[in-house]
C-alpha cells in the first residue's frame, strides 16, 4: 500500500466522521428543544412521502445492455433509481423556485 492509498482511506474516514458528526451533534443539541425534533421529523416524513410518490410514478424498464454484467440491473433497482432521480429533480426545482422568490422578495423590499 503506497502513500496515495493511505491518504484516500484517511480522506474516506474523515468524510464518514464528518457525516456522523453532522447528524449526531444537531440531534444532541435538539434534545434541549423537543419542538425542533418534531419539525425535523416532519421534514424527513415529507421527503419520504415525496420519494414514495416519485417511486410510484417511476418506470421499472431495464434496457437489455444493463441487464447483464457489470450492471446486473433488475426492474426493482431501476424503479428505485428512478424514484431517487425524480425526487432529486423535484427538490432541485423547489430549491431554485425558493431562491428566485427570495431574491425577488428582497429586491422589492
From TrEMBL:
Superkingdom, taxonomy of origin: Bacteria
Membrane-spanning residues: 6-28, 40-57, 77-101
Keywords tagged on the record: Membrane, Transmembrane, Transmembrane helix
Name the record gives this protein: Uncharacterized protein
Species: Algoriphagus sanaruensis
Organism taxonomic ancestry: Bacteria, Pseudomonadati, Bacteroidota, Cytophagia, Cytophagales
Amino acid at each position: 500500500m503506497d502513500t496515495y492509498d493511505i491518504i484516500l482511506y484517511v480522506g474516506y474516514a474523515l468524510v464518514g466522521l464528518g457525516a456522523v458528526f453532522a447528524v449526531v451533534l444537531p440531534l444532541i443539541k435538539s434534545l434541549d428543544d423537543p419542538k425542533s425534533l418534531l419539525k425535523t421529523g416532519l421534514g424527513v416524513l415529507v421527503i419520504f412521502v415525496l420519494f414514495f410518490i416519485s417511486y410510484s410514478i417511476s418506470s421499472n424498464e431495464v434496457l437489455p445492455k444493463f441487464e447483464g454484467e457489470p450492471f446486473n440491473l433488475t426492474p426493482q433497482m431501476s424503479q428505485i433509481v428512478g424514484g431517487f432521480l425524480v425526487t432529486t429533480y423535484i427538490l432541485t426545482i423547489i430549491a431554485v423556485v425558493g431562491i428566485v422568490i427570495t431574491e425577488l422578495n428582497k429586491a422589492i423590499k
